[in-house]
Q: What sequence folds into this?
């Protein structure tokens, strides 16, 4: 016992971790000296080092409290309120199973009543025009965000923008999906996730031009200061779609920063700079990617890539011989 507690102390000191003793017998050495290593989510035997469990789930709250008042204020049951739900997730639900609070089956004579209650409960949740609109639009947000694989932070920002747009009655005479798609596009820009207009418009009912139009209107009406995306933000995604390796990525980032220093990129679409710098980096690294391939992935036309890349190599004084496979492509 003495040896065990010493072992645990030294274990704590050595790892600098929050280790909590748990009463579990080690199957390897049969000693009752196991600790729960919270940051790593493991249960470890302090005697022999065997890891008993490697995927502990933290059942604790996601909030922190330092005083009793704080603790009382933050304590709750259920999910945290979320802005991405039209009622912030604060509504109740009547269970679909026909069982009462004691888990007994509801008497058949009362089933019709429960069915009616359930129906009206569902209907009464969405009562005003405002919340019906919001409920529909946030459903649309969930759909587009999951198709684009967007993180929760973007969803939250988009929901916030949409609520503001709705308060300003911007949805009048416009499609809900369109305004929502614009909110998502703008939210992505805010979160430095460089999605192109085309990528967002594919999953909404708008074309690229309409989406650009409604995004501009959203920015103007809500007086937002949207950061402009940098060309380098696009490189990782484009490079992955083109199956390029790290060497090419690093080279293209270098060219982009050189171009920025020489003010070549100012006033030009960042996607076009990214596309043409990738094209140059491919040639310098001896990787064959045609302008058409790059154009297909980046959405920048071949003509633009051609003009931009010639300008960049002239201004940066990069010289190379075009590989035979690329001549005239
Ligand atoms: Zn052990």
A:
């Amino acid at each position: 016992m003495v040896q065990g507690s010493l072992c645990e102390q030294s274990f704590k000191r050595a790892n600098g971790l929050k280790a909590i003793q748990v009463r579990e017998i080690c199957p390897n050495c049969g000693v009752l000296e196991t600790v729960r290593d919270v940051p790593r989510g493991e249960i470890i035997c302090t005697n022999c080092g065997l890891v008993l469990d490697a995927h502990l789930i933290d059942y604790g709250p996601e909030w922190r409290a330092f005083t009793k008042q704080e603790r009382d204020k933050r304590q709750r049951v259920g999910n945290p309120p979320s802005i991405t739900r039209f009622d912030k997730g604060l509504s109740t639900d009547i269970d679909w199973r026909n069982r009462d609070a004691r888990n007994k089956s509801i008497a058949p004579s009362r089933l019709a009543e429960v069915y009616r209650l359930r129906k009206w409960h569902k209907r009464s949740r969405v009562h005003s025009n405002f919340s019906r609109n919001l409920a529909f639009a946030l459903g649309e947000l969930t759909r587009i965000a999951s198709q684009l694989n967007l993180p929760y932070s973007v969803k939250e920002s988009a929901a916030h923008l949409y609520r503001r747009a709705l308060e300003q009655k911007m949805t009048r005479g416009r499609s809900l999906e369109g305004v929502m798609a614009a909110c998502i596009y703008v939210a992505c820009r805010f979160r430095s996730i460089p999605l192109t207009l085309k990528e967002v418009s594919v999953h909404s009912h708008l074309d690229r031009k309409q989406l650009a139009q409604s995004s501009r209107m959203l920015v103007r009406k809500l007086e937002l200061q949207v950061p402009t995306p940098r060309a380098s933000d696009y490189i990782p995604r484009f490079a992955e779609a083109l199956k390029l390796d790290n060497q090419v990525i690093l080279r293209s980032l270098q060219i982009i920063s050189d171009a920025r220093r020489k003010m070549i990129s100012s006033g030009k679409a960042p996607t076009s700079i990214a596309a043409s710098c990738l094209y140059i980096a491919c040639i310098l690294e001896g990787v064959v990617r045609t302008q058409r391939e790059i154009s297909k992935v980046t959405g920048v036309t071949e003509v633009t890539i051609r003009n931009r890349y010639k300008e960049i190599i002239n201004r940066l004084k990069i010289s190379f011989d075009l590989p035979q496979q690329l001549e005239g492509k």
Q: What stands out?
A: The CA atoms of residues 232 and 257 lie 8 Å apart. The radius of gyration is 29 Å.
